[in-house]
Amino acid sequence: MGSLGSLGSPGSPGSPGSGYFVDGNPCDFDPDRWEPGTLPKRHPKTDLDVLVVGAGLAGLMTALECWRRGHNVVGILERSHGPVYAGDIIVIGPSATAAFRHWPDMMRELEADQHDSTMSYYTHDGELILGPTQLGFNDPKYMLEREGHPVTAPHQVRRKFFQMLLRQVARVGLRVEYGQQVESYFEDETARVGGVVTKSGNIRVADVVVAADANKTKSALLIAGCHAPTQSAGMSVYRTSMPTELALQNDAFRNRWGAAIARNEISHEFWTGPGIHMGLVVSPEFTAYGITPRDSTVHTGGIKPIESWKPDVDAAEVIKVLQRLPDWDPAVVGLVSATPKGRIIHWPLLWRNLRREWTSKGGHVVQVGEAAHSSLPASASGGTLAIEDAVTLAACLQLSCAAGSGGGGGGGGGDGVTGAPTGTRIYNLLRYERVSCAQKMAFVNAEALGDADMDEIKRHPDKIRVRFPKWLFHHDPEEYVYEKYGQAFAHVVLGRERKKKKFQNTNLPPGHLFKPWTIEEVREDARNGKRVEDLLDGDWS
């Protein structure tokens, strides 16, 4: 379901639930207020200065992994004025949680705070299709394979997961500098540095600048010359969360979920109908939902997506969307009706076609997370990919510095730090194709949930299950760097003409012949009655 939005908590001032998820106090994670705890073994120092822009999941994990790898993190710049706790549920897959095996305190926190839940699938009128079941990566046979790694819960509470990262950043002595809005990125290939200029006019430079400041990052102007055009992904989402005690005031909601809540159980559900699907989490603490209708670009009679990032939509508008289909289960209508006035976000799911290049010409500025690649909630992998990026980049930088592998021009030799641009380019090479395939899974899942052939689903209920494919969660980004670095180095530094065969990534669906794709192609196929899943080659299971 991804991150669905935010609302407040009971008993706080203002409108009902106005304090449930709020901006945090920047002083809470001042490193002077935190003891180191149990730190991981740090690799030898590389003398590489790294500046991180953005203090979301990608930026914080990049800073932590760069610190662990021996790099000198010279700053973490964040445009907001404190930690932003908006959001509710995120899915962090095994390929990302594997990184926490190096971080004892975070590993303990993850295991102590895991939220187990069942997952069930329903038609929009309340008929059970499948469940209770688990996310694919938590099938028993796969859990045995991950013995010794951190437990991977079906979902994480975003606020708590984010605070865990902030605490660890403070424990290693790093400070997030809030209120630092970056206006531009630059690169000086002669001086072998990248840099940024903030809104206040401050200039910061480093050997490597990591753009982790999401999809409107100004690094795109340096790397590509312009921002990637945004287009509708064919969907939008009405999203919010609320204290469960508010939802329990509705009789239909209470009749359906009240007993499970009283037993302290968490329900994770998907509801589906023609042209629409809904993700829902009901816990004793809070209830979150995201209703995703197809919009007018792909669904006859669909709504036109309107970009609005403020929670200013009333329940009545969402109920009208639900009424495009008759016979919704009264509990779903009751849940929406219980949402406080003006507390729903209508968020258009905008898409930016993936660009191949995530690094500047000289390799001193590099993008991670949403700054490099869009994600949609239906993929349930945005946070996972961001952490994979961080782990991969930090490891590539360490190996490139150890090898002294070429400067901005990509030649051999150097004093270690000069090899960093090769590291950023190898990171890009290892990540681009995998991310492209993961992005496509968003459209596979969206089709399964909102455009399913219900007769086929009744015959084969497992086909409704949200896909968490083996090739996606059977991946260790750190080990992959060690496995592929030599081949990738030959590709990046020596050039294709000096190799016997083209570099091939193996972190993709087995048997898949990679080909770049665009949202325009997906929409054209949809108009012609072709499903994304039917056009996939290789094993995407």
UniProtKB/TrEMBL annotation:
<keyword id="KW-0285">Flavoprotein</keyword>
<feature type="compositionally biased region" description="Low complexity">
    <location>
        <begin position="1"/>
        <end position="12"/>
    </location>
</feature>
<dbReference type="InterPro" id="IPR036188">
    <property type="entry name" value="FAD/NAD-bd_sf"/>
</dbReference>
<dbReference type="Pfam" id="PF01494">
    <property type="entry name" value="FAD_binding_3"/>
</dbReference>
<comment type="similarity">
    <text>Belongs to the paxM FAD-dependent monooxygenase family.</text>
</comment>
<dbReference type="InterPro" id="IPR050493">
    <property type="entry name" value="FAD-dep_Monooxygenase_BioMet"/>
</dbReference>
<keyword id="KW-0274">FAD</keyword>
<keyword id="KW-0503">Monooxygenase</keyword>
<feature type="domain" description="FAD-binding">
    <location>
        <begin position="48"/>
        <end position="397"/>
    </location>
</feature>
<protein>
    <recommendedName>
        <fullName>FAD-binding domain-containing protein</fullName>
    </recommendedName>
</protein>
<keyword id="KW-0560">Oxidoreductase</keyword>
<dbReference type="GO" id="GO:0071949">
    <property type="term" value="F:FAD binding"/>
</dbReference>
<dbReference type="InterPro" id="IPR002938">
    <property type="entry name" value="FAD-bd"/>
</dbReference>
<feature type="region of interest" description="Disordered">
    <location>
        <begin position="1"/>
        <end position="22"/>
    </location>
</feature>
<dbReference type="GO" id="GO:0004497">
    <property type="term" value="F:monooxygenase activity"/>
</dbReference>
